[in-house]
Amino acid sequence: MRGRLLALLVAVLGLGAPAGSETVVAGLSQEAISITANFEGSEILIFGAVRRDAPPPGAAPMEVIITVQGPSRPVTVRRKDRRFGIWVNTDLSEIDLAPTFYAVSTTGPLEAVLTQTEDLRHRVSVPRAIRAVGTGLIDQESFTEALVRIRTEGGAYQLNEGAVRFREETLFDTAVHLPAALTEGDYLTRIFLTRDGEVVDLFEQSIPVRKVGIERAIYTLAQERPLVYGLLSLVIAAAAGWAASALFRYIRS
Amino acid sequence: MQVYLPIAEVSVNALMLLGLGGLVGILSGMFGVGGGFLITPLLFFVGIPPAVAVATSTNQIVASSVSGVLAHLKRKTVDLKMGSVLLAGGLVGTAVGVQVFAALARLGQVDLLVQLCYVVFLGVIGALMLVESLRAARRARRPGAPQPGPRKARGWLQMLPFKMRFRTSGLYISVIPPLLVGAFVGLLAAIMGVGGGFVMVPAMIYLLGMPTKVVVGTSLFQIIFVTGAATVMHATTNYSVDMILALLLILGGVIGAQVGTRIGVKMKAENLRILLALMVLLVCGRLALDLVLEPAELYSIAEARAGR
User: Fold this and answer.
1) What integer pLDDT is reported at residue B96 of this predicted model?
2) What was the pLDDT predicted at A156?
3) CB distance A231–B241 less than 8 Å?
4) Does residue B255 fall inside a structural domain?
5) B288 to chain A nearest CA, in Å?
6) Pseudo-torsion of CA B106, B11, B258, B50, nearest 10°?
7) What number is the average pLDDT over the span A39-43?
């Protein structure tokens, strides 16, 4: 009773950050993701709990937003237009940085669980995660929208509202599906705890995604020793061609 | 069975790629063509990035040409000297083509260039082949009609300097026309990911006046080295040769080629050519439609790749 009164007092007076009273602890089902020759995509399970030092403040429900973000890269978006009767790339927009993968999972509709201000501050929603500034185009919007649309269709950008479920009052979990076409790098997982649309606490953990084995070897060789790689491709091709003709001659005779 | 392609950075069905290689192999065995002009557009259709499709199919052509040229060497139907002259031109053409390709990739117009080249070449070649084979089929039904022999090299070709003797072909001509033919084919190899046999073979017969029996072996000889050079140059300038993709296509291709050869022997040559012409026109039509019809998605994304 005294604690609740105290919390109310703190809230009314606006003293002290609310973050101190509720914190989120979480874990991921995988330490690392390996892209192997038969990689078909992956699923990461994210689970966590809310730890309270004091009874829950106020009546606003507790909400959780989980984002998983792949490495960001500059992206060029091109638009086609009809020229001389055929469709040709005419306009382009360079987007400074856009994540190669971005998934947002929430306990409820994003607008309800996060305020615009907090979204701007923490870059939570998909459009906020993309950085596009000063390209001088009048309709920059439509290029950014196209990027989000195309990547959403391909499963690279996801908005899973309601996908985070509370098991008990303070235990929650969700599963995020990673598509087969993944870019290597560190994937940052962020878990936001919100009340009334304000971020109460934030937990971060990153998970490395790497090509391994033969995939790693081929990719590294192609990037670092392109000449050797090209020659090796040739030798393999020539050997395969010769072996095939020798084999079929042997079968026929 | 999904397989992740390390350079294309997409995951595709391995059996589908084997099947694709096999299908093109059957066709190339049946018709005696390299099949590059079919494999590249088919790779576009299954979602391989155009740059990777072009570069990788040059690698695949090396394999199928090696297997073909060995048989021709044994029969001594390769004009090595003529092949070397064509090759010299071819290497220059390829070097230019790879640079053009890289420059257009930066401008975002490489897909358009490749598609336009395909539509134009497949359209022209397909139409010519169809007309020619229909006429041949009609002649075959009316025996006694005169068979047109290969035309002799035209007069102005004899006026050019730098003449050279090509013993195997029985020719004494200037090296300039074969150099130009070779360069043109090299350019096509780099830009379209084809061997270029469909341009070189008619040029050798009608322009250079080479005897038909050495034409195929000699063009295969040139194609091996030109596509080989294109592979290495694409690997070093555009980093776009996918070894795993090539290997799957080659595996399917060599098996398919053997099957195709058997089928080809059983079919009438004229009917075979009509079929091939129709197929070329079909691929051409599909690519042309993509250019002319309003695409469902007007926007496209090009990502700056890591490591560059």
Assistant:
1) 92
2) 85
3) no
4) yes
5) 9
6) -10
7) 80
